[in-house]
Amino acid sequence: MSTSTATGSAQLDASMTPPRLRVAGDWTLVHYASLERTISTLRAPLDPATAVDLSGLGALDTAGASLLASLLGAARLGNLAHEDPTLPVAQRALLQTIGRAMADYVEPKVTHRGNAVTDVLARIGAAMENVYRQQVRLLGFIGLTLETLARTVWRPRRWRVTSLVAHVEETGLDAVPIVALLTFMVGAVVAFLGSTVLKDFGATIYTVDLIAFSFLREFGVLLTAILMAGRTASAFTAQIGSMKANEEIDAIRALGLDPMELLVLPRVLAMLASLPMLTFIAMIAGLAGGGLVCALVLDISPVMFLNLVKSDIEVRHFLVGLAKAPVFAFLIAVIGCLEGFKVTGSAESVGEHTTSAVVQSIFVVILLDALAALFYMEMGW
With contact defined as beta carbons under 8 Å apart, do 170 and 234 qualify? Predict the structure, then answer.
């Protein structure tokens, strides 16, 4: 049996024992169509017992090598190229490369499109699985952080005081203006809306109680935590993520240092110190904003405002609000650091995980605040 083209040819001599296939001529892209017709008349891939003679092979490129691989089989082509001493070095290397590539090639699975309901349920299931995996990783990272803290707290030589102070300045001191300004304006808005509603009932004096209750129990710590989630958690993720992308964390491990101790603990402790102080400032600023509106709109003097707060509001409301600050601070810092460690190796990954850190932090803060409000209500606090 014999088939050939003007340039490249493949001749199978079945009379010999074992049968022999002689490959000759140029196997290039220019002659791809004719060569493809040639090998289609042969039984491809050939019987492993068939001998192959590549001594007459002329010019060869990737297209021709892929046709030979489909004719002889990818694994056999690589073996022949390795064993045949008559082939030039360049052709041997090309045939071996094509053989390895086609041997590792896997046909993509053809996915059949389902109906809309199935697709929606599949997306919901994938999202829930992703949320579950994130929560498992978060719990594991929290445990690792607590373990590192317990291991380090009794060894003062390993404390990163300089890093801690720098992060306290970055997360706490630098955030005072924006926290104070935001809560001051929110306090003014709450006072204005409260007075507008209570005015119809002749109870505008209770606007003071509304402002004090809302900021001491909820708004002070909640607004501060949301601001820190957007400002600080994103910064932690970007800082650690950039180090991860630049392989600086691998260098830290190569030096025998612990990234948890060097990068995570100072940030977590700085947040634990900064957020309660910022919460206190937010409470004062919110009361000041509400007091200003009361003085301008309701003719409630600052002295009267403070006397009403003192007489109607118990200290426990302040403590209830302040008690949530360390919990929020710990979770915000841990989520920000964890997302930083998840960064792979590109700027796009840094941006994705920075956004994820902000979204997760805000979600966790609001969720825990709602659960805490229900708990305090049931306990009568």
Answer: no
